[in-house]
Amino acid sequence: MAKGLSVRLFTIAGFALVFVLIAHSQANQSPARDQSSVPVYQPRHYPFDAGEKAVYRASWNGMVAVATAEVQTSTRWVDGTKYYDVRVQANTSKLLDFIWRMRDTITSTIEAKALTPTQFTFSQRENRKVIDTVAKYDRTSKKWSVRRDERKKSVKTYDFDQPANTIDPITAVYLARSLDFKVGDHLYFHVFGGKYRYLLDLDVEGRETVRLGSRNVDAFRIVPRIKNLVDDGYAERLNEATIWISADERRVPVMVKSKIVFGSVYLELVDERPATPSRIAENRPPV
Questions:
Q1: pLDDT grade, residue 145 (50/70/90)?
Q2: Residue 281 is assigned to a structural domain of this protein
Q3: Secondary structure string (H, E, C) spanning 8-21
Q4: Does residue 223 form part of some domain?
Q5: What is the band of 275 on the pLDDT scale with cuts at 50, 70, 90?
Q6: In 3D, which of 35, 9, 1 has the Cα closest to residue 241?
Q7: Is 235 within the bounds of a domain?
Q8: Which of 48, 128, 121 is CA-nearest to residue 89?
Q9: What are the CA-CA distances from residue 131 to residues 11, 49, 149, 158, 194 (Å)?
């Protein structure tokens, strides 16, 4: 059971479950799209611009809490350019720690205007596994430079520039949130998850009301599908995962469900808040 959970929990936060599945998945089936025709999206909305903090709880079959994740978004200015800093911290519960202990951190720095990536880091601390990945994107050459330190095994460095417009999974989530979409739409992204590169298809299957704690939320139901662009093989649906994202202007990921060998893992938003007024003031452009 713990191994099955590990595939689904490494960055648990709304769409963050997708980050986990992308980075750990051995994708085996293709989305119905030619990888050469992935569009270049232009952001339409910035619902996270004032900053955000969201807390998610993962549970097994909706009963036993197995992990929590916190997602923080803030802005900063560097030489007149605005950036979003996103940090995802995912921890297993004390109960699950006895079987499988996870303390994973993912960060992404995103250029704010076009929502293009700048740097992506993935710090894996899972039982005795220690892996640190740092990937930097050069917007001039449109090339990624990656350093993957597996400590006891090896340190690997490499560059890649294909497929074009490859972004990290956090940037993909924020870019998706910035777009107008409706039921029946598909959003396609080339995504780099730390080790593999994927074609990600977010299929907007429906719109429905979901129960979140004591309130009802109008939400889009989204099914993620991926194709591994490095290894051969295909997987029609990403570990039987379904994502619900609020249908209001915030476009907040509110719930995720993913099947495992013994039941399902549920991920639910349990707390969210915008940046405080003082924090917003800190993020204003310099004068």
A1: very high
A2: no
A3: HHCCCCCCHHHHHH
A4: yes
A5: low
A6: 9
A7: yes
A8: 121
A9: 14, 31, 6, 16, 10
Q: Which of 178, 161, 182 has its CA nearest to residue 170?
A: 178
Pairing of strands 166-167, 186-192: parallel
Q: Is residue 285 part of a domain?
A: no
Helix locations, 161-286, DSSP H: 169-177, 277-282
Query: Within its chain, how far is the Cα of 46 from the centroid?
Result: 17
pLDDT at 272: 86
Give the number of domains in the chain.
1
Distance CA 164, CA 189 (A): 10
Cβ atoms within 10 Å of 58's Cβ, excluding its own: 26
Contacts of 50 (CB under 8 A, 6+ apart): 274, 275, 280, 283
> How wide is the angle at C-alpha 37 spanned by C-alphas 207 and 184, nearest 5°?
15
Q: What is the pTM of this model?
A: 0.84
